[in-house]
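Q: How would the structure tokens look for this protein?
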Amino acid sequence: MHPLLLGLMTGIAFGYILQSVGVARCGCIFNALNLRNLKAVKMMLTAVAVGSLIVYPASALGWVSVGGKTLYVLALVVGGAIFGAGFAIAGYCPGTALAALGAGRREVGAVVAGGLLGALAYALVYPVLEPLLIRPLNYGRVSLPQLLGLNPVVTGVGFGLLLLVVVFLIDRWEQRRASHAA
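A: Here is the predicted structure in token form.
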């Protein structure tokens, strides 16, 4: 199967899950950011955990290739701040925005357009940003297994299991908070 077709099918499935679980709603994201309802956080952590538990063993079998990404510290800090501000203002992340758009919510069109315009703006100003944010504090390609000095499968499976424990603890914390409020 062509990788783009596989990506499209995976994206549609993930969007369907986002919509079905109810996290593709602005209110759900705002509640998560305000720590009122962490359903979106738990869902995303679970998705990353499941991905880790699948991808790292698949890489050991040679089915997929897992490599580190280039670590640009300044670019990540500045880009993360801009992304986070947009996330908080809009009440959507890129995945939830596209899922909401796919579900026919027209109000999210401005969010998707803003994200695309932001990507275009970044591409246009990249030559100016490169010497300021990309070249300084560039640590090259880095992966978590490499940083920890562990086998990639052990790291990926351990990370996935750790995230599932975090989801469990968040769920327990929410249940206790709800029972105290009642």
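The chain is about 75% helix and 5% strand.

The two ends are 52 Å apart (CA to CA).

Upvote if useful.
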